[in-house]
Amino acid sequence: MSRQYETVIGLEVHVELATKTKIFCSCSTEFGGAPNTHTCPVCTGMPGSLPVLNRQVVEYALAVGLAVNCEINQYCRFDRKNYFYPDNPQNYQISQLYLPICHDGFVEIETAAGKKKVGIHEIHMEEDAGKLIHDEWEDCSLVDYNRSGVPLIEIVSEPDMRSADEVIAYLEKLRLIIQYLGASDCKLQEGSMRADVNLSVRETGALEFGTRTEMKNLNSFKAIARAIEGERKRQIELLEDGKKVVQETRRWDDNKESSRAMRSKEDAKDYRYFPDPDLPPVTISDAWIQEIKDRQPELKTEKMARYQEEYGLSAYDADIITGAKYMADIFEATVSLCGKPKEAANWLMVEAMRLLKEEALEPEAIRFSPENLAKLIVLVDNGTINRTVAKEVFEKIFAEDVDPEAYVEENGLKVVNDEGALRAVIREVIAANPQSVTDYHNGKERARGFLVGQTMRAMKGKADPAMVNKVLEELL
Length: 476
Known about the structure:
Blueprint (H helix, E strand, L loop, with lengths): L4 E12 L38 H13 L3 E2 L2 E2 L2 E4 L9 E4 L6 E10 L2 E14 L3 E5 L4 E5 L6 E7 L6 H18 L11 E11 L9 E4 L4 H20 L7 E6 L4 E7 L9 E2 L6 E2 L2 H10 L4 H12 L3 H7 L3 H14 L2 H18 L11 H12 L5 H14 L3 H7 L8 H14 L1 H8 L3 H14 L6 H11 L1
Parallel strand pairs: 12-13
Antiparallel strand pairs: 1-10, 1-11, 2-6, 3-16, 4-5, 4-15, 6-7, 7-10, 8-9, 11-12, 13-14
Helix pairs in contact: 2-3, 5-6, 7-8, 7-9, 9-10, 12-14, 12-15, 13-14, 14-15
């Protein structure tokens, strides 16, 4: 009988914070920009330059820590992690090892087996390194220090996850919490959220962990899921062949769907950590913690409950709309303008979601304003346009954020409420379709639907369907 294995997974998630300036200097953190233009003596590691801590970094770290149920170290400090690499200008990284800002938290995720708590070992603040660009044409490597000194928090989980599904649920929950707090946009494709996966396997029922490997270079949830599956398989094959798993850092290649060894895994002692002599300890008062708590926004769970209570949305609708902070923001702004929550929810969940899916976009890519969506809802509600026309107008709003009132006026899309004109068109439709009229009188209800359709076509979709039905009934 073949042996059964259990996968044990822990994550190190790096999140780039949404501050305007870097962690220890006043250089811009904006993504992009020509290489080495967002730099100064501090973030390029010039001798004699001194770091000064950005207060906003501490506030974001505290906000995230409180939102994931962490204890706060009210006395914390920075340490130097020494390693020599071309994109690390000082030859050390300023991080936190001995006294990180947050510790012992958890997030609750939904799994196939129900709710599960994933422990958070710690959250610490640190600076990002620069970026190496390998130029194969010139056969050299170039370094860009724009990212050097960008503030990060590293969220280190306990090894509590057992499958790729649990890992994705944990990351999605974490990403949503951080986005709701406004601490980061968490765009994996831009590197503002990065996850390293620590994975080991052990025989089912075994108490001791197996030898773990760490996988880097994961910039999408799909890549993370594939990497977990690939590494799990690789380790089981090694154990089945009687070989040992080596503790190492591996690089995942998503195109080849395989990983390769980068370097043997270092221990903390290899980095020769010591307290940074240039930075004083950070003392966090009770009053400061209370101030952050008072500023914490409503997160997804509370929003969902409020949407059901206040707006009468179903649990499903509330779940979908709060699934992206940007979508929830548009929804609330639209409702405050038109006072029609169910209509606003329907347009976002059906039409906006459909167009996002067709164009393979995230909700953050929505460019239309709540004002224009609210105007569209009012136009339909007032009977100025019908739903068929409204869908066409919505597509223009989605693509170009047009003003629906102006667009409807310019393109003559208002519902025709002239009963005389409608009667004339319906008479023509009846005269042109004698067979359908006969079928209708013989009890075939579908024939009536056909005649309604022909009338709407003749009216270019601008007739009021209720009036069409009423007049048609009368004339038949």
